[in-house]
Amino acid sequence: MCFPMQRLKTRPQFQVALSGKTLARTTHFALHCAGLGSDGPREGVVQAPLFAQQGVWLGAMVPKRWAKRAVTRNAIKRQIYNLSLQFEPHLGVAAHVVRLRAAFDRKQFVSASSEVLKAAVRAELLSLFQRACPGAKAAA
Q1: How far is Cα 24 from Cα 37, in angstroms, rounded to an integer?
Q2: Residue 106 structural domain
Q3: Is residue 40 domain-resident?
């Protein structure tokens, strides 16, 4: 049974995904991945499983440190989630986080949400996902 891609929502889910290995890196982004192993109770504490169902889980981290304006952070997150749908079949059953790790030059991209910035983000994300999934081809 195949489930649609789920989004990471809680801090513990993001922490688990970030604690895994780094699948790929580009100048501005990193893709982290962790398997959906059993999250058993610790020292008698009963806790709900972090990932309710098997499948591909994805989260996007765009810190204010690297993207000051909310409009820019939201545009980058939209690009991450839209492009990840094309690579979903190749990502595998795991929790993934795409993390912005460096700022885009504000001198080069003056506008907070320009078409030029969106194209640059999309091109770099495409490169990131292709490095993580070598056999995958992106739709044009």
Answers
A1: 21
A2: 6-34+54-132
A3: no
Q: What is the mean pLDDT of residues 97-110?
A: 93
- 94-100 and 21-25 beta bridge pairing: unpaired
Q: How many CB atoms lie within 10 A of CB 34?
A: 19
By the 10 Å C-beta count (0-12 exposed, 13-18 middle, 19+ buried), 7 is classed as: exposed
End-to-end CA gap in the chain = 28
pTM (2 d.p.)? 0.85
8 Å CB contact between 97 and 58: yes
CA distances from 139 to 38, 83, 134 (A): 34, 10, 14
**CATH assignment at residue 110:** 3.30.230.10
Q: What is the pLDDT of residues 118-139, one digit of tens each?
A: 999 999 999 999 999 887 666 5
